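hiii, so i know i said id send this last week but things got crazy w the move. better late than never?? heres the sequnce for the chain we talked about at the cafe, plus the structure i predicted for it. fair warning i was half asleep when i ran it
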Amino acid sequence: MNSIAGGTIGKQFKNLHKRMSRRRISFLKSLPLFKGGTPDYLLVGCFFLIIFLGLVMLSSASSVVSFQKFGTTYFYITHQLLLGFLPGLIFFYIASRIDYHILERFAPLFLILTIGLLSLVFIPGLGFGAGGAQRWVSLGPIVFQPSEVVKLTFLLYLATWLAKRKGSAMRDISNGLMPFIILVGSVSLFVILQPDMGTMGVIALIAALMYFMSGAPLPHIAMMALGSVALFFILLQVAPYRMERFTVFLNPGLDPLGTGYHINQALLAIGSGGIFGRGFGLSRQKYAYLPEVVGDSIFAVIAEELGFILTFGLITLFVFFAIRGLRIARRAPDTFGFLTAVGIITWIVFQAFINIGAMLAVLPLTGIPLPFISYGGTALIIGMTAVGILVNISRQVK
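okay and structure toks below
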């Protein structure tokens, strides 16, 4: 009798354990961490290939300036790995696994973060500058560039804001165009006061394309385009150094030892690379000739060492990344996902081609880094987080 009772109790315990296990599994699957299907592996592969090439080329481009400043050739690449790539990998994984719809709930917080972060650079003791620009914040051992974070926080807020305005609201000036201009103008004002005209242009470009893709009428886009051109020339007149840069862009040989020095050295590096390049690690321009060799000018070092063919391959990777990203956007399950994907792709790809265009002298120098390749921990972490969100959207495409 005791054995029969014991067996019955054992079976009941096993059944209870199975039910509890099923409930736990059901609960875990209901969490946003476990939602979604298969990610776009082609986009993920392309993305990590760009990062790998970026780390390899940063190790080469930074070796000379790193030794000059810190007595070791590995300072920049070590910091990029430990303070950029590894934290970015964690944020990428989290963003790719948590349901992106949750981000809509935090839209007001993203706007507060956007304005708050941009304000920090002007607070004495927190914000600090270099080269005449006030763009960085120091919180003890943590140093970061708020404008890089703002590219993502403002993008997410704007995607939520635009997703809620459909049909007649987008065609109405008082409910659509004017609030949009006030939002973008307020953020742009904080950025231009740093001053950072390049980042302001990227943020405005992201916002404008998202506004257009949300269904804004063409007359509204035309009015914004005319206003942007007028603002551009006003900003050139206000700061003489901007006008000098623009003049040198129109005529690179005008001041080769002054304002035109940077672009002339970049063109010299790119031209000397030829078809096949000088070889990895054999750049000459990185020996204190080319300014900002680990930042804005790293593309010139890539072209000098790897040559036209492999450099064109890097450009092709960014194009492929854009194609896969736009495919994800087109198949996104809702307007918020569509606009978020469009914003992320616009940000990364346009910024890449603005940087490359500046090094090729087809665009004015703006100080815009090359995404996932230029040195900068903040930019790498935020960029990887943004791609994680894009991958999460790809898990839920139709």
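btw The CA atoms of residues 275 and 308 lie 5 Å apart. thought thatd interest u
miss u guys!!
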